[in-house]
Design brief:
This protein is globular. α1 links the parallel β2 and β3. The protein has an 18-stranded mixed sheet that branches. It is built from 4 helices and 18 strands. It folds into 2 domains: about 150 residues, Diaminopimelate Epimerase, Chain A, domain 1 (Roll); about 120 residues, Diaminopimelate Epimerase, Chain A, domain 1 (Roll), CATH 3.10.310. The model has no long low-confidence stretch (mean pLDDT about 95). The two termini are about 10 Å apart. About 15% of the residues lie in helices and about 45% in strands. It is α+β, with helices and mostly antiparallel strands. It binds ligand LBFN2T5F. The ligand N[C@@H](CCC[C@H](N)C(=O)O)C(=O)O binds next to α3 and α4. The site of the ligand N[C@@H](CCC[C@H](N)C(=O)O)C(=O)O has 18 residues, from α3 and α4. It is an enzyme of class 5 (isomerase). It comes from Sphaerisporangium rufum. Catalyzes the stereoinversion of LL-2,6-diaminopimelate (L,L-DAP) to meso-diaminopimelate (meso-DAP), a precursor of L-lysine and an essential component of the bacterial peptidoglycan.
Length: about 280
Protein backbone atom coordinates (compact mmCIF):
# COMPACT_ATOMS: atom_id res chain seq x y z
CA UNK A 1 0.00 0.00 0.00
CA UNK A 2 1.16 3.53 -0.79
CA UNK A 3 2.11 5.98 1.93
CA UNK A 4 3.05 9.63 1.91
CA UNK A 5 5.02 11.35 4.66
CA UNK A 6 4.30 14.95 5.59
CA UNK A 7 4.66 17.44 8.39
CA UNK A 8 3.32 20.71 9.69
CA UNK A 9 5.97 22.62 11.68
CA UNK A 10 7.69 19.24 12.16
CA UNK A 11 4.64 17.55 13.67
CA UNK A 12 4.95 14.60 11.31
CA UNK A 13 2.51 12.08 9.91
CA UNK A 14 2.30 8.94 7.83
CA UNK A 15 -0.57 9.43 5.37
CA UNK A 16 -2.33 6.25 4.24
CA UNK A 17 -4.71 6.70 1.29
CA UNK A 18 -7.61 4.26 1.70
CA UNK A 19 -9.79 4.95 -1.36
CA UNK A 20 -12.09 1.95 -0.83
CA UNK A 21 -12.33 2.28 2.96
CA UNK A 22 -11.13 -1.28 3.44
CA UNK A 23 -8.00 -0.69 5.53
CA UNK A 24 -8.33 -2.02 9.09
CA UNK A 25 -5.65 -0.35 11.20
CA UNK A 26 -4.84 -1.99 14.51
CA UNK A 27 -3.08 -0.01 17.25
CA UNK A 28 -0.06 -2.29 16.86
CA UNK A 29 0.26 -1.55 13.12
CA UNK A 30 -0.02 2.20 13.72
CA UNK A 31 2.62 2.04 16.47
CA UNK A 32 4.92 0.02 14.19
CA UNK A 33 4.55 2.51 11.31
CA UNK A 34 5.26 5.43 13.68
CA UNK A 35 8.33 3.78 15.22
CA UNK A 36 11.29 6.07 14.43
CA UNK A 37 13.81 3.25 14.28
CA UNK A 38 11.93 0.17 13.09
CA UNK A 39 9.19 1.92 11.09
CA UNK A 40 8.66 4.99 8.90
CA UNK A 41 8.59 7.23 11.96
CA UNK A 42 5.90 9.79 12.80
CA UNK A 43 3.88 11.44 15.55
CA UNK A 44 0.70 9.96 14.09
CA UNK A 45 -1.11 8.36 11.16
CA UNK A 46 -3.69 10.01 8.90
CA UNK A 47 -5.92 7.49 7.13
CA UNK A 48 -7.55 9.21 4.13
CA UNK A 49 -10.95 7.62 3.59
CA UNK A 50 -13.98 8.76 1.56
CA UNK A 51 -16.48 10.05 4.15
CA UNK A 52 -19.35 8.17 2.55
CA UNK A 53 -17.52 4.86 3.03
CA UNK A 54 -17.06 5.35 6.77
CA UNK A 55 -20.08 4.78 9.07
CA UNK A 56 -18.26 6.86 11.70
CA UNK A 57 -17.90 9.80 9.30
CA UNK A 58 -21.50 9.55 8.07
CA UNK A 59 -22.69 9.76 11.69
CA UNK A 60 -20.48 12.81 12.32
CA UNK A 61 -21.89 14.62 9.25
CA UNK A 62 -25.45 13.73 10.31
CA UNK A 63 -24.86 15.07 13.82
CA UNK A 64 -23.43 18.33 12.39
CA UNK A 65 -26.58 18.70 10.25
CA UNK A 66 -28.88 18.06 13.22
CA UNK A 67 -26.97 20.63 15.28
CA UNK A 68 -27.90 23.21 12.64
CA UNK A 69 -24.35 23.86 11.42
CA UNK A 70 -23.70 25.54 8.05
CA UNK A 71 -24.17 23.30 5.00
CA UNK A 72 -21.02 21.27 4.40
CA UNK A 73 -18.70 22.35 1.61
CA UNK A 74 -17.18 19.23 0.15
CA UNK A 75 -16.82 17.13 3.29
CA UNK A 76 -15.91 14.27 0.96
CA UNK A 77 -13.04 12.97 3.08
CA UNK A 78 -12.69 11.67 6.62
CA UNK A 79 -9.44 12.21 8.51
CA UNK A 80 -9.06 9.06 10.57
CA UNK A 81 -6.31 10.25 12.92
CA UNK A 82 -4.29 7.95 15.20
CA UNK A 83 -1.61 8.87 17.72
CA UNK A 84 1.82 7.21 17.54
CA UNK A 85 0.78 4.70 20.21
CA UNK A 86 -2.14 3.63 18.03
CA UNK A 87 -4.82 5.38 20.09
CA UNK A 88 -7.59 7.44 18.47
CA UNK A 89 -7.85 11.19 18.98
CA UNK A 90 -10.71 13.52 18.24
CA UNK A 91 -8.74 16.20 16.42
CA UNK A 92 -5.30 17.07 15.13
CA UNK A 93 -4.80 20.62 13.89
CA UNK A 94 -1.43 20.13 12.18
CA UNK A 95 -2.53 16.75 10.88
CA UNK A 96 -5.55 18.36 9.27
CA UNK A 97 -3.40 20.99 7.56
CA UNK A 98 -1.15 18.22 6.17
CA UNK A 99 -4.24 16.16 5.23
CA UNK A 100 -5.61 19.11 3.21
CA UNK A 101 -2.25 19.60 1.47
CA UNK A 102 -2.27 15.89 0.57
CA UNK A 103 -5.85 15.99 -0.81
CA UNK A 104 -5.07 18.92 -3.09
CA UNK A 105 -1.66 17.67 -4.25
CA UNK A 106 -3.17 14.23 -4.98
CA UNK A 107 -5.99 15.82 -7.01
CA UNK A 108 -8.63 14.63 -4.53
CA UNK A 109 -9.82 18.15 -3.66
CA UNK A 110 -9.79 21.48 -5.43
CA UNK A 111 -7.49 24.17 -4.05
CA UNK A 112 -9.40 26.77 -2.07
CA UNK A 113 -11.76 26.08 0.81
CA UNK A 114 -13.44 22.80 1.70
CA UNK A 115 -14.61 20.85 4.74
CA UNK A 116 -12.99 17.73 6.13
CA UNK A 117 -14.77 15.31 8.46
CA UNK A 118 -12.89 14.73 11.72
CA UNK A 119 -13.94 13.04 14.97
CA UNK A 120 -14.16 16.58 16.38
CA UNK A 121 -16.75 17.50 13.72
CA UNK A 122 -16.56 19.15 10.31
CA UNK A 123 -13.57 21.48 9.95
CA UNK A 124 -13.10 23.96 7.12
CA UNK A 125 -9.62 24.24 5.61
CA UNK A 126 -8.22 26.86 3.26
CA UNK A 127 -5.09 26.60 1.13
CA UNK A 128 -3.40 30.00 1.12
CA UNK A 129 -1.57 31.49 -1.88
CA UNK A 130 1.58 31.47 0.31
CA UNK A 131 1.48 27.66 0.54
CA UNK A 132 0.32 27.81 4.16
CA UNK A 133 -2.85 26.00 5.19
CA UNK A 134 -5.45 27.49 7.53
CA UNK A 135 -7.93 25.43 9.55
CA UNK A 136 -11.05 26.79 11.18
CA UNK A 137 -10.57 25.02 14.50
CA UNK A 138 -13.92 25.97 16.03
CA UNK A 139 -14.56 27.71 19.30
CA UNK A 140 -12.15 26.68 22.06
CA UNK A 141 -14.11 25.46 25.10
CA UNK A 142 -12.47 26.76 28.24
CA UNK A 143 -12.99 24.78 31.44
CA UNK A 144 -11.60 25.65 34.82
CA UNK A 145 -8.04 25.37 36.05
CA UNK A 146 -6.03 22.25 36.74
CA UNK A 147 -2.39 21.29 37.20
CA UNK A 148 0.38 19.32 35.56
CA UNK A 149 3.58 18.15 37.19
CA UNK A 150 6.84 18.18 35.23
CA UNK A 151 10.11 17.07 36.82
CA UNK A 152 8.59 17.27 40.30
CA UNK A 153 7.26 20.83 39.85
CA UNK A 154 3.56 21.55 39.64
CA UNK A 155 2.28 24.05 37.05
CA UNK A 156 -1.18 25.60 37.03
CA UNK A 157 -2.95 25.54 33.70
CA UNK A 158 -6.14 26.31 31.86
CA UNK A 159 -8.34 23.42 30.77
CA UNK A 160 -9.16 23.89 27.07
CA UNK A 161 -11.05 21.53 24.79
CA UNK A 162 -10.33 21.79 21.08
CA UNK A 163 -12.37 18.65 20.53
CA UNK A 164 -9.42 16.96 22.20
CA UNK A 165 -8.31 17.73 25.77
CA UNK A 166 -5.58 20.25 26.63
CA UNK A 167 -4.04 21.78 29.71
CA UNK A 168 -2.17 24.97 28.76
CA UNK A 169 0.19 26.08 31.54
CA UNK A 170 1.56 29.60 31.23
CA UNK A 171 4.72 29.88 33.28
CA UNK A 172 7.52 32.39 33.87
CA UNK A 173 10.06 29.56 33.90
CA UNK A 174 11.73 29.27 30.47
CA UNK A 175 10.10 26.25 28.85
CA UNK A 176 13.31 25.41 26.97
CA UNK A 177 14.74 24.20 30.30
CA UNK A 178 11.98 21.72 31.12
CA UNK A 179 12.45 17.98 30.90
CA UNK A 180 9.55 16.63 28.87
CA UNK A 181 10.95 13.15 28.35
CA UNK A 182 8.31 11.69 30.69
CA UNK A 183 4.53 12.02 30.64
CA UNK A 184 3.61 14.99 32.90
CA UNK A 185 1.42 14.14 35.88
CA UNK A 186 -2.16 15.38 35.69
CA UNK A 187 -5.47 15.08 37.52
CA UNK A 188 -7.28 12.00 36.14
CA UNK A 189 -10.55 13.25 37.63
CA UNK A 190 -10.35 16.25 35.26
CA UNK A 191 -8.88 14.31 32.33
CA UNK A 192 -10.24 10.75 32.48
CA UNK A 193 -9.14 10.11 28.87
CA UNK A 194 -5.69 11.68 29.23
CA UNK A 195 -4.54 15.13 28.19
CA UNK A 196 -2.13 17.04 25.98
CA UNK A 197 0.00 19.33 28.17
CA UNK A 198 1.37 22.64 26.86
CA UNK A 199 4.04 24.60 28.73
CA UNK A 200 3.95 28.18 27.55
CA UNK A 201 5.94 31.41 27.95
CA UNK A 202 4.42 34.74 26.96
CA UNK A 203 7.37 36.47 25.26
CA UNK A 204 6.09 39.72 23.85
CA UNK A 205 3.15 41.39 22.27
CA UNK A 206 0.91 38.50 21.28
CA UNK A 207 3.75 36.03 20.96
CA UNK A 208 4.21 32.81 22.90
CA UNK A 209 6.78 30.04 23.06
CA UNK A 210 5.32 26.58 23.58
CA UNK A 211 6.47 23.04 24.22
CA UNK A 212 4.01 20.20 24.32
CA UNK A 213 3.74 16.67 25.61
CA UNK A 214 1.05 15.00 23.52
CA UNK A 215 -1.22 12.28 24.73
CA UNK A 216 -0.29 9.13 22.85
CA UNK A 217 2.75 10.61 21.08
CA UNK A 218 5.10 12.06 23.72
CA UNK A 219 6.91 15.36 23.24
CA UNK A 220 6.37 16.56 19.68
CA UNK A 221 7.89 19.53 17.86
CA UNK A 222 4.48 21.13 17.34
CA UNK A 223 0.79 20.64 18.04
CA UNK A 224 -1.90 22.65 16.27
CA UNK A 225 -4.72 22.13 18.75
CA UNK A 226 -2.13 22.78 21.49
CA UNK A 227 -1.06 26.06 19.86
CA UNK A 228 -4.66 27.29 19.92
CA UNK A 229 -5.00 26.22 23.57
CA UNK A 230 -1.73 28.03 24.35
CA UNK A 231 -2.96 31.21 22.63
CA UNK A 232 -6.21 31.04 24.60
CA UNK A 233 -4.23 30.68 27.85
CA UNK A 234 -1.78 33.55 27.20
CA UNK A 235 -4.69 35.71 26.03
CA UNK A 236 -6.55 34.94 29.28
CA UNK A 237 -3.50 35.94 31.33
CA UNK A 238 -3.47 39.26 29.42
CA UNK A 239 -7.22 39.68 30.02
CA UNK A 240 -7.98 39.19 26.31
CA UNK A 241 -10.18 36.80 24.35
CA UNK A 242 -9.63 37.86 20.76
CA UNK A 243 -6.69 38.76 18.53
CA UNK A 244 -3.87 37.15 16.57
CA UNK A 245 -1.04 35.31 18.31
CA UNK A 246 2.22 33.91 16.99
CA UNK A 247 3.06 30.64 18.68
CA UNK A 248 6.70 29.59 18.43
CA UNK A 249 7.15 25.84 18.69
CA UNK A 250 10.37 23.81 18.34
CA UNK A 251 9.39 23.02 14.73
CA UNK A 252 8.54 26.54 13.54
CA UNK A 253 5.90 29.25 13.78
CA UNK A 254 2.12 28.99 13.87
CA UNK A 255 -0.42 31.79 13.73
CA UNK A 256 -3.57 31.58 15.85
CA UNK A 257 -6.50 33.94 15.38
CA UNK A 258 -9.14 34.10 18.07
CA UNK A 259 -12.46 35.83 17.57
CA UNK A 260 -15.79 35.75 19.37
CA UNK A 261 -17.01 32.75 17.38
CA UNK A 262 -14.07 30.59 16.43
CA UNK A 263 -10.31 30.08 16.23
CA UNK A 264 -8.09 29.70 13.16
CA UNK A 265 -4.72 28.03 12.85
CA UNK A 266 -2.33 28.86 10.00
CA UNK A 267 1.08 27.45 9.15
CA UNK A 268 3.11 25.43 6.69
CA UNK A 269 2.13 21.92 5.63
CA UNK A 270 4.49 19.97 3.41
CA UNK A 271 4.76 16.51 1.91
CA UNK A 272 8.29 15.17 1.96
CA UNK A 273 8.31 11.54 0.82
CA UNK A 274 6.23 8.76 -0.65
CA UNK A 275 6.69 5.03 -0.86
CA UNK A 276 5.25 1.60 -0.45
CA UNK A 277 4.36 -0.09 2.84
CA UNK A 278 4.93 -3.83 2.38
CA UNK A 279 1.86 -5.95 3.23
CA UNK A 280 3.77 -7.60 6.11
CA UNK A 281 3.92 -4.19 7.87
CA UNK A 282 0.12 -3.95 7.85
CA UNK A 283 -0.68 -7.11 9.83
N1 LIG B 1 -0.60 16.99 17.02
C1 LIG B 1 -2.00 17.22 16.98
C2 LIG B 1 -2.80 16.65 18.13
C3 LIG B 1 -2.88 15.13 18.00
C4 LIG B 1 -3.83 14.48 18.99
C5 LIG B 1 -3.36 14.51 20.41
N2 LIG B 1 -2.11 13.83 20.62
C6 LIG B 1 -4.46 13.90 21.30
O1 LIG B 1 -4.35 12.74 21.70
O2 LIG B 1 -5.45 14.59 21.57
C7 LIG B 1 -2.35 18.64 16.62
O3 LIG B 1 -1.62 19.21 15.80
O4 LIG B 1 -3.38 19.16 17.05
Amino acid sequence: MRFVKGHGTENDFVILPDRDGGLELSAAVVAALCDRRAGIGADGVLRVVPAKLSAEAVAIVDRAGEAGGPPPRGADWFMDYRNADGGLAEMCGNGLRVFARYLVDAGLAEPGEFDVVTRGGLRRVRLEATGDVTVDMGRPVVGGESWASVGGTEYDGLVVSMGNPHLACVTGEPVARLDLTAQPGFDPAVFPHGVNVELVNAVGARRAVMRVYERGSGETRSCGTGAVAAAVAVAAVAGERTGTWTVEVPGGLLTVELDEHTSRLTGPAVLVAAGEVPPVALV
